[in-house]
Specification:
heterotrimer, A alpha/beta (about 260), B alpha/beta (about 325), C mainly alpha (about 260), B: about 325 residues, alpha/beta, D-Maltodextrin-Binding Protein, domain 2, 2 domains, 5-stranded mixed beta sheet, 4-stranded antiparallel beta sheet, 16 helices, 11 strands, C: about 260 residues, mainly alpha, MetI-like fold, 11 helices, about 85% helix, about 0% strand
């Protein structure tokens, strides 16, 4: 269980974003206010079109909000950076011309450079292997991405995201493209990893079950326009399974979202 | 497997069809195709065209003229059966004959001044050429190349002394390059380019054709294929007659010929008259220098065979005329 | 894969037999349609006296130089166009204007400006290589998945790192197919240029060799030269490029 600190860590203040469409202007995010605690596992849950991906991208610094502020430790964040590493849903996020281990060491090197750390080749390899072993893919280090299954690719991507060493990890429906069994395995892996490491994870999904399984707090969103409905606490103990409390929370959330 | 067999059959069929088409065209038609080239030395041929001498001899004869830019294309055209009569210098004729081309000389056409013209101050003779000086001429194996080689042999004992410095260029481009003064240091020119260049400041002649050859020689001859001669002998004779007429005309009426042809050559009548009567320009059916060319080219490896009989090289009509002339001369000698 | 090569070999033998039969049948004169025996004799003669080898060496060395220079230039130009919108406008316009021009059409100009030496031939080769390469590199660079740009931003890669770690490897399939086109065009242009430009110090390349054979009426020699051109072309395309692809884009599963 990670240490959850109470002081203001990551803050979104009055975030607004609209997009121009053929029919005029569409409000993607309307007056979003959110406080994120350090080392917590937060899920943003909502139907498609509610702006959750957009919100995540704004946090990551890939998109600029029209108005409002993004603050970390009270300082405004203006660009993307290694402190907020994104794990995408796309299988193509891995570099096909690099072996598995190469993909992970890409992140190791980037992190080292960011911290002005000089690492030898051996040290880089060691670190990369460590992260690979956490996702249980050591045996596949010399494979090329195209030789891996979808689930394995996402595990490599997860290893890479970890290896980048960012204090915040952003995840944009990373398990949406795999089959349900693999999905469950990946969820278990992620839950386990989060408990081992001290990272803040902001996880976007539309799958209620996934949110209940993984997160401590769930931000419910609605669409048209994208707004936060409410934030729900999830105090279920780990490891989480199909207990009656689990199902209860699931049904509650489902009901809230259907309004 | 069936697919493969049918493809092979189709391929073979198409090959035979192509050859059948070819032979179809060559049935005895009343037509003759003559190749024409730009150059003052070919003037009588232009007269045949201008005065319609062939049509006068036989109104039924279809005369086609084919404009070709160099001797190599003419050679290939004749090989393909597209051209029946053409005109060129002696060396290219010999080279192809040596390699098996079945053609012979119809008659001589013209003797002409030729010259190696240079734009460089420091070049006054062959000895002054430096390694980077380039000489422009129509192609390797052309009469210009052979003449240059003859001069090199005579002066230095090295026939291919200048072979590394040759630039293949047709006469108009060569003249432009020579006058531009950069890339080309010398141009082995023929009329009218020779005349135009000699009028330019800074251009001088350092070697003449006759110096290189060591005497007089026929510049342009008329040639035709054995096939045309044998399978269309009537048309051949018509052409021969027209050619003789044209040569006689231009030899005896240079002024009138100049007036008729000036437009065709894009020259003023005054220029045309001047060029046609330039010293060394001579239109005659005599063939001079043939043996000397053969001897030189065989010795230097351009030709493999070296014992050509005149009858192998020249069509009978011309031979017959020559024999008549010789007989007349002998007769005249006897009468003295 | 070896099946395809066997097939090819069989077809070549079939065509060769057809050729020889046609030559022997006497349908065409021996001058226009020399038999394979004559052609191979001419080929062996030229190989033996070293002339052909020297000319081949000359041609190959020039084309390699040209390819090298042009590839470097294409990379620089395409990268510049990728990072700078205004430069992109200029470079794309230049490419659009120059690409349709066959090198042969430019030769009179090149002759006047650069003379007829090695420089002129290099220019012709560079012209044949540069534009298709720039086009392909351009397309390649602009076709990389958007996600790579996000990753580059996320990991704070500077322009150089982005270029070498992501942009260039990601567009390698386009680069290779551009290179194939460039090779084909430049090989053709080289032979044509050599035919036109004549000898430079007794070395003129394969095109010059064929031209010599032509003016000296040695048709078997011309065919021998043609065979060499074909053999070299096929070797480069089927062996060198294939090997390159196998070691890179095929291995990475990136074949288009």
């Amino acid at each position: 269980m990670g240490n959850v600190k109470v002081s203001s860590y990551l803050e979104l203040k009055n975030i607004n974003k609209s997009f121009k469409t053929e029919k005029g202007s569409k409000i993607a995010l309307n007056n979003i206010n959110l406080q994120i605690k350090e080392n917590e596992f937060l899920t943003i849950l909502g139907p498609s079109g509610c702006g959750k991906s957009t919100l995540l991208k704004i946090i990551g610094g890939f998109i600029r909000a029209d108005s409002g502020q993004l603050l970390k430790n009270k300082k405004e964040l203006k660009t993307a950076g290694l402190d907020r590493i994104m794990l995408f849903q796309d299988f193509e996020q891995l570099f096909p011309w690099q072996k598995v281990i190469g993909n992970v060491s890409f992140a190791v090197k980037a992190a080292a450079k960011n911290e002005k750390d000089k690492l030898t080749k051996a040290q880089i390899k060691e670190k990369s292997l460590k992260y690979l072993s956490e996702v249980k893919l050591t045996d596949y280090q010399n494979y090329y991405p195209h030789q891996l299954s979808g689930g394995m690719k996402q595990r490599v991507a997860l290893a890479r995201t970890l290896a980048a060493g960012g204090e915040i990890m952003l995840m944009d429906e990373p398990f949406g493209s795999v089959d349900s069994q693999t999905r469950q395995e990946l969820q278990q892996l992620l839950a386990h990893l989060w408990q081992e490491e001290e990272r803040t994870i902001i996880f976007v999904t539309h799958a209620i079950r996934e949110a209940v399984f993984l997160s401590e707090r769930i931000v419910l969103m609605k669409n048209e326009p994208g707004e936060i409905l409410e934030v729900v606490e999830n105090k279920l103990p780990h490891p989480r399974g199909h207990s009656s409390q689990f199902n209860q929370l699931f049904e509650e959330l489902q009901a809230r979202l259907q309004d | 497997m069936k697919k493969y067999i049918s493809i092979i059959i189709i391929l073979s069929l198409s090959l035979f069809l192509i050859s059948a088409c070819e032979s179809g065209d060559q049935s005895s038609q009343k037509s003759i195709t003559v190749a024409e080239q730009y150059g003052l030395a070919y003037a009588p041929v232009q007269l045949i065209k201008e005065l319609q001498l062939l049509e006068e001899l036989d109104p039924d004869l279809k005369v086609k003229w084919k404009q070709l830019s160099n001797t190599t294309s003419i050679r290939e055209s004749m090989l393909a059966g597209e051209v029946d009569a053409a005109f060129m210098a002696i060396p290219p004729f010999l080279i192809a004959k040596d390699k098996g081309m079945e053609w012979k000389i119809i008659s001589g056409l013209s003797e002409s001044p030729l010259g190696l013209m240079t734009n460089r101050d420091y070049i006054n003779s062959l000895a002054d050429f430096k390694a980077e000086d380039k000489i422009a001429l129509p192609q390797p194996g052309s009469i210009q190349h052979i003449l240059l080689s003859m001069a090199a042999q005579r002066n230095y004992g090295e026939t291919d002394k200048f072979d590394n410095r040759l630039l293949t260029m047709n006469h108009p481009d060569a003249m432009n390059a020579l006058l531009a003064g950069r890339e080309v240091s010398a141009h082995f020119a023929s009329p009218p380019y020779l005349f135009m260049e000699s009028k330019e400041e800074g251009i001088k002649k350092i070697l003449s054709g006759s110096e290189a050859f060591g005497g007089d020689f026929t510049f342009i001859i008329g040639v035709s294929t054995e096939e045309f001669y044998q399978q269309q002998s009537e048309n051949y004779i018509l052409f021969y007659k027209a050619l003789m007429e044209a040569i006689k005309f231009i030899d005896q009426n240079p002024v009138q010929a100049a007036e008729l042809l000036a437009d065709n050559y894009d020259l003023s009548q005054a220029e045309m008259k001047e060029y046609l009567s330039w010293p060394g320009m001579k239109f005659t059916s005599n063939i001079k220098g043939l043996e000397k060319f053969i001897a030189f080219m065989t010795a230097e490896g351009y030709l493999e065979e070296n014992d050509y009989q005149r009858s192998e090289l020249i069509f009978e009509e011309k031979l017959a005329v020559e024999e008549n002339v010789t007989a007349l001369e002998k007769g005249a000698q006897q009468n003295e | 894969m070896s099946n395809k090569y066997w097939q090819r070999l069989i077809w070549i033998i079939v065509l060769a037999m057809l050729w020889q039969l046609t030559a022997l049948s006497g349908t065409f004169s021996e001058m226009i349609f020399p038999g394979l025996d004559q052609i191979f004799l001419a080929l062996i003669e030229s190989l033996e006296d070293g002339v052909l080898i020297k000319q081949i060496g000359f041609s190959l060395s020039i084309i390699i130089q040209g390819l090298f220079i042009a590839t470097a230039a294409a990379l620089i130009l395409a990268l510049t166009a990728y990072f700078s919108k205004s430069a992109a406008g200029l470079i794309e316009t230049l490419t659009a204007l120059a690409h349709p021009l066959p090198g042969i059409a430019l030769m009179p100009l090149i002759l006047i400006w650069f003379g007829s030496g090695k420089t002129a031939i290099l220019i012709v080769i560079i012209h044949s290589v540069l534009w298709p390469l720039i086009l392909n590199l351009n397309t390649g660079f602009n076709s990389i998945p958007d996600i790579y740009t996000l990753i580059a931003k996320n990991y704070r890669l500077n322009k150089l790192e982005f270029m070498f770690k992501i942009l260039i490897p990601a567009s390698l399939p386009y680069f290779i197919s551009g290179l194939k086109i460039a090779w084909a065009r430049s090989w053709r242009a080289l032979i044509s240029a050599e035919m036109l430009f004549g000898a430079i110090n007794s070395l003129g390349g394969l095109g010059w060799y064929i031209f010599q054979k032509r003016v000296f009426f040695d048709l078997p020699g011309v065919f021998a030269g043609i065979i060499v051109i074909i053999v070299i072309g096929v070797t480069v395309e089927d062996f060198i490029f294939k090997k390159l692809e196998t070691k890179t884009v095929k291995k990475w599963g990136m074949l288009k």
